[in-house]
Amino acid sequence: MLKVAVNVPLSREFDYLPPADGPVPAPGCRVLVQFGPRRQVGVVLALADTSDLARDKLRHCLAVLDETPLLGAADLQLVRFTSSYYHHPIGEVVAAALPALLRQGKSLHPIVEMIAVTEHGTSADIEALAKRAPKQAEVLETLCDAGGNGLEAEHLTELLPNWRRAAKALFEKGLIQRFEARAGEFDETLAPAAEPGPELNADQQAALATLRSDKDVGAFLIEGVTGSGKTEVYLQRMQDIIDEGRQVLVLVPEIGLTPQLVSRLRKRLGIEPALLHSGLTDNERLAAWRAARSGAARLVVGTRSAIFTPLQNPGLIVVDEEHDHSFKQQEGLRYSARDLAIVRGRNLGIPVILGTATPTLEMLRHCRDGAYELVRLPKRAGGARPPTMRLVDTVRSPATDGISEPLAAAIDSHLGTGGQALIFLNRRGFAPTLICSSCGHIAGCERCDSRLTVHARSRQLRCHHCGATRPLASTCSECGETVKPLGEGTERLEEALRERFPGKTVTRIDSDSTQRKGAMVAALDLAKEGQADILVGTQMLSKGHHFPKLTLVGIVNADQGLFGTDFRSGERMAQSIVQVAGRAGREHRAGEVLIQTAFPEHVFWSTLISGGYEQVAEEALAEREATHWPPFTRLALVRSAAHQRADAIGFLEFAQQALLAHCSETLRVLGPVDAPMARKAGRHRAQLLLQSSDRPALHMALRELRVTLEQSPAARKVRWSIDVDPVSYTHLTLPTTGSLCGCGGGGGGGG
């Protein structure tokens, strides 16, 4: 009997008989099964002697897709834990752990379409061809550069999206050819020879000694100020592990951090890392996954989903910028890659290193309790001094297009002495609002409870929540009078800075300006080489980047988090400011940070400037403990979305009643209430909050609730999910309505 996980939204495994012919597949192998009217790819989780169904009711698997298991026992253990802890269907968890091609039933070593230049094509006159058929010439030149082995068609599509139309004539002329081949393998030797690193200072040496100590294996939190050399400490510990013949997995929060880190890893370790992130083609991702699984890749670098990658001989997991909430998946399977890294390290008996300048309160509390070891790097490496911070009162010095006169003067001063400036605003687009100067009408999204953002260059209004767009109008749709953009986005800042500083190179780096493949790397290279005088960007620029000439950071709209209703607003705001401020003065020149605020007397600023992030965190922990918020209690959200508000609320009212019927004294059930953005992409959204000081009691309630909800007819009208340890809610103030079980005291832990 086979226990099979099938990619469907049901919290159970399904029983199948082995195929009528051939060997019984082992746990971790894929099988093709008939599931209702469809054929599905499933994964065998276990073998069993009995089933709840009679044997004549069981179906045979249609085929076994793998001769040996794709997922080992440790990988299946992580899958089971993820499904249990996050209360998510195990079939969907297994699907998340596999590359797309394997989910589709393709071979571990697929046959791919290859395109290559022919001998006749190598002697063709490309310049002459370019005059009459430039697209054909571009394809031919690309393939000539690739050499006789050619390129995978999928990769060629990424380089030249419309190549097939131009290639038709090249095939007919015999200049290029098509053939099939086994997918390429990962090649670790592509990296240059290793280069020696800088000599470690005393703090770095002490940190490395702690990581190398013979203490029980566990999690180490490296809290190092920006520029303290955390990465160099990681590198030396990674080298230890690789020299022992074991593998290292490095997790980064976003693709944008990958190029700079990968370049450094190549140079220092002399190893080509296997990369796993969403910017790869399906074949590239499978090749890296395959290399990690076989052990051919000793170093694996990836974003969130890489935590599920099988490793032949694991030795170390590193989580860079552990505080970044990008490690938490916000749709579908809502897991935290950082937390799963700690679980995986514990299961495998290997160390986990978490690094950041601004640790989450959850991690700090774990260190206080002795669960993790805290390693501090209090000073910048190489003698660099921390940047000075000062406030600019925008009431006394109003900002024009986001830039106050004191900030403009500072930019001029730093550029005049050969420095570089970074202007930070975590809001893309030209302006967040289009308002009528006569009737006050604001352009809103028809599908969401949100304003449309002005994008001046493309002459569009865009919703940053559902993606809806419409042309940018010059007159009001209500009264016909003139409309104008209100507020600032990065696009408007870029335009204003070009006007203020003619002749200076202004480079904008946000998700709009870096959509094309390679655009992010090119922009960061310009910044690193000092060819961009002024950088304008969002949070993409605040994480882990090193710009040697950067001496000034200007934070334009620093008040966004001062009065947030999310209990984590202050923590996140401090993290964001400290991270982006840390880009300044990382070499021998002193750095300066100017923070524009309309509330310079706010206590947050005095705490941050006088005591740094450490003081902000200390005060936030004390406040959380007094008010019974994480990390001193545990939270879960049950979310629902439906075309009708009554259906979304009604489903959660049903969930509320189910919880109250089995409620413990330590569990509070709050709501249901509308979500902070009640309507998104045409659906009404609502949420129900569960809060408990007893983690086992919370999970027991969620386990019973999921089974009840899956069987409820009300579930057919809504999209619903359970979010354990949520990080995204905008506000979680206690509702005045809703039912409470117990008082929800302190205790528990985070992460």
Task: Describe the overall structure.
The protein has 751 residues and is of the alpha/beta class. It has 21 helices and 30 strands. The strands form 7 sheets. Strands 11-12-10-13-14-9-15 form a 7-stranded parallel beta sheet, with helices on both faces. Strands 16-26-25-17-24-23 form a 6-stranded parallel beta sheet, sandwiched between helices. Strand 23 (506-509), helix 17 (519-528) and strand 24 (534-537) form a beta-alpha-beta unit. Helix 5 runs antiparallel to helix 6 (134-146) and helix 9 (202-212) runs parallel beside helix 10. It is globular.
Quick take:
The protein contains 21 helices and 30 strands. By secondary structure, it is α/β, with parallel strands linked by helices. The radius of gyration is 28 Å and the shape is globular.
How far apart are the first and last residues' alpha carbons, in Å?
37 Å
DSSP helical segment count: 21
Q: What is the approximate shape?
A: globular
Q: pLDDT below 50 for ≥5 consecutive residues: which ranges? A: 730-751
Tell me the strand order in the biggest sheet.
Answer: 11-12-10-13-14-9-15
Task: Quote the average pLDDT.
Answer: 88
Largest sheet: 7 strands, parallel
Number of strands: 30
The helical percent reads 25-40%
* Percentage of residues in DSSP E strands: 15-25%
Question: How does the helix and strand content classify structurally?
Answer: alpha/beta
Give Rg in angstroms. 28 Å
SSE topology:
Blueprint: E1 2-6, E2 14-16, E3 30-35, E4 38-47, E5 63-64, H1 73-85, H2 90-97, H3 100-103, E6 111-117, H4 119-122, H5 126-132, H6 134-146, E7 151-152, H7 153-159, H8 163-172, E8 176-182, H9 202-212, E9 219-224, H10 230-243, E10 247-251, H11 258-269, E11 274-276, H12 282-294, E12 299-302, E13 314-320, H13 337-348, E14 352-356, H14 361-368, E15 373-377, E16 388-393, H15 405-416, E17 420-424, E18 433-436, E19 453-455, E20 460-462, E21 469-471, E22 483-486, H16 490-500, E23 506-509, H17 519-528, E24 534-537, E25 550-555, H18 569-581, E26 592-597, H19 603-627, E27 634-642, H20 645-661, E28 667-680, E29 683-692, H21 695-710, E30 719-724
Parallel strand pairs: 9-14, 9-15, 10-12, 10-13, 11-12, 13-14, 16-26, 17-24, 17-25, 23-24, 25-26
Antiparallel strand pairs: 1-2, 1-4, 3-4, 3-5, 6-7, 6-8, 18-22, 19-20, 20-21, 27-29, 27-30, 28-29
Helix pairs in contact: 1-2, 1-13, 5-6, 6-8, 9-10, 18-19
